Amino acid sequence: MKLSKNMLLVNTSIIVLSISLLLAFRLIDRSFPDVHVLAYPTVGGVVQGEQLEGQVVVTAEANKGYRFLGWVQNGQVVSEKATFSFKPSNEQTITANFQKYMAEIKLVASENLGGQVYGEGEFDFDEEITVIAEPKFGYVFEGWIKDGNIVSEHLDYSFVVKDDALLEARFKLDLKSQTLRISDGDYFLALVNKDTYLGRYAPTDLVSINKDMLKYPQWRYELREEAYTNLEKMWKSAKEDGVVLYIASAYRSYDTQSQVFNENVNRHGEIVANRSSARPGESEHQLGTAVDFVAHKNGRLMDFEGTPGALWLMENAHKYGFIMSYPKGKEEITGYIYEPWHYRYIGMDAAQECKEAGLTLVEYLMTKPQFFEKPAEYVNN
Ligand SMILES: [Zn+2]
C-alpha cells in the first residue's frame, strides 16, 4: 500500500508514524525515496518502519506460532536480524519473511455439548498428538469430524499435526443405548417416553379426583394418592390466587391409551399421532401422576397456553412437586410437541431442581445416573 510521495510506508503498523512525524519527513527531506515495508505472510507478524538520520530502520516481530526468517529485498535476504537499518537510494520494497512453525488444533463438542473434549492447543508440525472425547451420560459418541468427514470413531484419536485444524467431536443424545430405562412405574421419577416402555403397568394406589376440579364432573378421574394430595393443595392454592384450573385428563390405563392413540391415528394419521399423543405403554398418564389442565369448563387443551392458569402453573407447580413435562423448545429432547397443559408429579425435590435449572425430567435424570438403577426398595420385588 502506498500512501503518498516522500513518505515512509508500512503495511500493518501505520499508526507508529504519527501525523506530525510524517509531515516532518515531508518538510525536512522532500527527496527521501518511498520505502514500502511488508510482511509475508501478513498473518506472520507485524512490521514497523522509521526514518532516522537519513537511514530507514525496519523492525519485524513474529506473531504467535510464527518465527521471523529475515528481511528480503529483490529476492535476496539482506538481513536475518529483526531490526535492520539501511540507506535507501531509490523507491524500494523490503519484506519481512515469517514462517509458521506451530499449528493450532481446536476442538468443539456438538449436539448441545453432549460431552467434553480434551487436547486442543498449539503444536509443532509433525508432532503426534491425541485428542480425547468423553460423552456425557445419555449421549453416545459418533466420531471426530474434520471438514465434514469422519476421521475417527475412537474416543481417543491420535494423529500427526500437519496444519491448523478444527475437529468436532460429534455426540448424540441416545437414550436407547443407555441403561436409562426406569420401567418401574411406581417410581415417581420413572422415565416414560418413546424410548422406554411401561408395558401394562398399572398403579395400585389410585384415588378419585374431587369433582369440583374436573372439566367433566360426571366422569371418574384418578391419580395416585401422593400425586393427588399435592394436586389438591396446588389447586386450592391457585384458587386462593383467583385462578381456577380444570382437570381434563388424569390416569389413563394401557387400554384407554390404546383407544386414544388409535383415535388420533384414524383422525390425523400415524406420524401426527405419534408426535402429539403417546402409544400405549409410553404415556405418562399411565403412571397415574400426570394431569392435563384446561382454563374453563369448555376449555380445550390447545387453548390453555397463556391463560392465567397456565401462567400460574409455570410459576408455582414445582412447589407442589409438579413439572411441565413437554416445555417449549425441548421437543428434540422430550420427543413431544410443546404441551403447556400437561403436568406430572415427580416429587418436591426433583421438581424444585428441574425448575431452577430449567430441565425436563430426562435431562434432570441424566445429571444423576444413580436414578437409573432400581431403587433398593424395588430390587427384591
Ligand atoms: Zn397429558
From TrEMBL:
Pfam families: Flg_new_2, VanY. GO terms for biological process: proteolysis. InterPro entries: Bacterial_rp_domain, DD-CPase-like, VanY-like_core_dom, VanY/YodJ_core_dom, Zn_M74/Hedgehog-like. Gene3D superfamilies: 3.30.1380.10. Residues 222-347 form the D-alanyl-D-alanine carboxypeptidase-like core domain. One of its GO terms (molecular function) is peptidase activity. Residues 41-100, 109-172 form the Bacterial repeat domain. It comes from the Bacteria. This is M15 family metallopeptidase.
